[in-house]
Amino acid sequence: MSDDDPQSCPPDPTRRKFLLTTGSSVAASLVGAYVPALANSAAGGSNSAAAGEGPNIEGTVPITLRINSKDHQLRVDPRTTLLDCIRETVALTGTKKGCDHGQCGACTVHVNGRRVLSCLNLAIMHDGDEITTIEGLGTPDALHPMQAAFLACDGYQCGYCTSGQIMSAVALLKEPCGSDDAAVKELMSGNICRCGAYANIVTAIQQVRKRA
Amino acid sequence: MHTFEFIRPTDSAAAIAAAAQSKTAQQGADVRFMGGGTTLIDLMKLNVETPARVLDINRLPFDKIELMPDGGLKIGATVRNSDLAYDPHVQRDYFVLSQAILNGASAQIRNMATVAGNLLQRTRCMYFRDTAMPCNKREPSSGCPAIAGSNRTLAILGASEHCIATNPSDMCVAMAALEAKIHVQGPKGPRAIAFGDFHLLPGSTPHRETVLEPGDLITHVTLPPPIAGSKQVYLKLRDRASYEFALASAAVVLTITSGNITRARIALGGVGTKPWRSPEAEAALMGKAANDATLRQAAEAALRGAKPQSENGFKIELARRCLTHALRTAAAS
Q1: Domain membership of residue A197 as a residue range
Q2: Which residue ranges form the domains of chain B, and what is each CATH number?
Q3: pTM for this one?
Q4: Which of B55, B92, B218, B234 is 20 to 30 Å apart from B320, CA to CA?
Q5: How far is B42 from chain A (nearest CA, A)?
Q6: What torsion, rounded to 10 degrees, do the Cα atoms B38, B80, B61, A84 define?
Q7: Closest chain B residue by Cα to residue A185
């Protein structure tokens, strides 16, 4: 296997896990409440999240979020965006926070099969909705065709916008979109890539569309 | 973001009763309806909007697009922008509306944003969005730093000495040209508002942007029956090719019979303090031959009242050319 092959990497070598194992005492003093949630997730957790996940603080409200076909019973402050809830409460950190103001697309997820910006949504509005994040799309052993195409076409550089790009691209497959590159560029314009990997992103998407 | 109480009213009567307790339905409202959230959540994060109560209306029954007996179209308040743009009736009979919506925002935002929310979209003026700065729209009588400051993207039509903020909506420009009606249910019952009467000029009260009063809930928008054979174009000019607000845009609905213009509805975007219908351009077109001279005269007429700010004088010529090009495209279609 080549070094580029994601399957040759050690299982789940995230920076987050590395930090948790090497700097747990520092992390615990700095980020307090978030560490247990992250540690549970990093340890694999159970398939059904504990009832009332998240601290029971005055003003928080109970909601059930269905993310990647799994129900999470949570307590959230009504101000919590869907993005912060996914990342900090449920500890699915594949979805990224870029601008946090609906201008970059890094936080794109699917709600009931449609792509939306999780930063301009409140978690509390999505009680009962079907939410899909990049973690629900494929696994390192069984990549979604769009994930595989981004790898094959080098559709990224730093990778920060990539999960948003891929979530957008997968949704685009089901949207009215002309067959040419210009149509793809127009419908992908809500996902900004500061590295400028746009040309390869379009190639990856077109590759998947042609094979479909 | 300030704390707020999140409420999901079970029916519109409950929503209206809760919202009627607000002191205002305008800037600074202490009760807000939440649709897609694309404007409201953004402004709440900036502390520009600080409602004490947020009413989620997404599960009220306002999510349908229906053909009316007279042939017009009824569009529910919470219909998503993308669903409206791709609706077969809209694509066939109100193409200018489909084009305008698809020229706005991004696919993700169009999937979230509602029709009623787009009607109430707020300005992108940087001083309005920054609570460290004065702004007459956000804080009455605090001043307008945009007039002597950064105003390249701001209004050349409809401004006052108190506010020069641009209305950023694309959808509204097309709806102005299509003569849509906005239907509101309020504490005193239902009423319909002509599109041109819905948004207010800033004058000395820029914090008042619409005629809505506390408790007024937009339930739907109606479009009049389609005009057979009308030629429709939406043209938008901006700093980048996509995912950007208009510097100038034009919505054009023309009927041309035997080479003569027999009906014209014209509206401009990106240049006005409200979606800018131009009766001057319409009058310049009516009954005339659809030739280049006529179209240029109409564009001249549309911008005759324009007043530039220190950085946006270019918008006058840009808007003129935008409208001329849109008219030419429509006439040639």
Answers
A1: 145-211
A2: 5-56 (3.30.43), 231-332 (3.30.390.50)
A3: 0.91
A4: B92
A5: 6
A6: -40
A7: B242
What distances in angstroms separate CA B212 from CA B199, B200, B216, B217, one per listed residue? 9, 10, 6, 8
Residue A6 included in any domain: no
- pLDDT (tens digit per residue) in B281-320: 999 999 999 999 999 999 999 999 999 999 999 999 999 9
Instruction: Tokens for A91, please give them.
Output: 């500890």
- From chain B, pick out residues whose CB is under 8 angstroms from the CB of A175: 107
ipTM: 0.96
CB contact under 8 A, A117 and B45: no
CB B280 within 8 A of CB B302: yes
Q: Which residues of B touch A168 (CB under 8 A)?
A: 107-108
Q: What is the pLDDT of residues B205-246, one digit of tens each?
A: 999 999 999 999 999 999 999 999 999 999 999 999 999 999
Q: How far apart are CA A21 and CA A41, in angstroms?
A: 13
Cβ atoms within 10 Å of A209's Cβ, excluding its own: 16
Cα-Cα-Cα-Cα dihedral sign, residues A92, A96, A97, A102: negative
State how far the Cα of B145 lies from the Cα of B310, in Å rounded to an integer. Answer: 12
How many CB atoms within 10 Å of residue A129?
16
Residue B91 touches chain A, beta carbons under 8 Å: no
Picking from B41, B45, B98, B238 by the largest number of A CB atoms within 10 A of its own CB, the best residue to mutate is: B41
Q: Please tell me if residue B5 touches chain A, with a CB cutoff of 8 Å.
A: yes
Q: How far is CA B48 from CA B29, B122, B129, in A?
A: 11, 11, 6
Is A26 an interface residue toward B (CB < 8 Å)? Answer: no
With an 8 Å Cβ cutoff, are B45 and A61 in contact? Answer: no
Contact A67, A86 (CB under 8 A): yes
Q: Are A84 and A53 in a shared domain?
A: yes
